[in-house]
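for the writeup, i need someone to sanity check this before i put it in the appendix. the sequnce is what the collaborator sent (i think, or maybe the updated version? ugh). structure was predicted straight from it, no edits. if anything looks off just tell me and ill rerun, i have time this weekend
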Amino acid sequence: MNKIGTLAEKSLHAGIKAWYGRSTDQFEVKVDGFVIDIVREEQLIEIQTRHFGAMKRKLKRLLDDHPVLLLHPIAQQKWIVRETAVGDLISRRKSPKKGQPLDLFSELMRIPHLLPHPNLVVGAILTQQEEVWRDDGQGSWRRKGWSLHDHHLLDVVALHTFATPAELLAMLPPALPQPFTNKELAKLAKIRVNLAQRTTYTLARCQAIEQVGKKGRANLYQFVTVD
C-alpha cells in the first residue's frame, strides 16, 4: 500500500477506507496531481468525512477524465466517549441523535453544480460511530476546554449511492405533496428546517426540483419532470 497522505489520516477516514477497499485496489495514489484514496480499475474513490467545499477544485479537475465515487459517512448511531487528556476513559453514552441519508445534503450544498456530471456518483454510508472528546484544555471556552479528538468507525449499516440528481429525490418522503415548502419537507422527513433548506437549495441548483411560486412567505418547490 502506498503511504502518501496517511500520516495525518483520522480514524473514521481510515476505517471507511479499510471497509470499502479490496485487496486488488490501489491506495493513496497520485492521479493528475491529486492523491486519491482508492483507485479501482478506472474508478477513483474519495472518502470525505466533511468539508465537501474543499473538494471543488479536485473534483472539477478529475471528473472530465475519470469516473469518481465520493463517499461520505453519516452516523446513524453514535456514542459519545469522554477521555482524559492522555486517553483514559471517563464515560461513554449513546447519543439520541440519529443520522439519515438526507444529512448528505449538508455537504452536497457545497457542490450542487457538480452533481449532474455523468462521471460523479455520491455515496452515503450509514454508520455506527464513536465520537471521542478529550479534557485536554484545547477546546473552546464554550466546551469548557474539551476538544473533539477523533471519530471511530464501529460498523457500517448501509450504503446508498446516487448517480444522478433525479436519484437524489428518492431520499425525500414519498408522501411529500407537490408542490411543497421547506416546512412541509422538514415535518414529513423529521428533520430541522435548516436541513430542509439545504436540501431544496441543492436540488434546485442541480435542476432536480424547481421553485414554482410562494405559499405566503414560503417558497414552493416541485419535482422537475423529464419528458
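The chain is about 20% helix and 40% strand. Confidence is low (pLDDT under 50) at residues 1-8.
thx in advance!!
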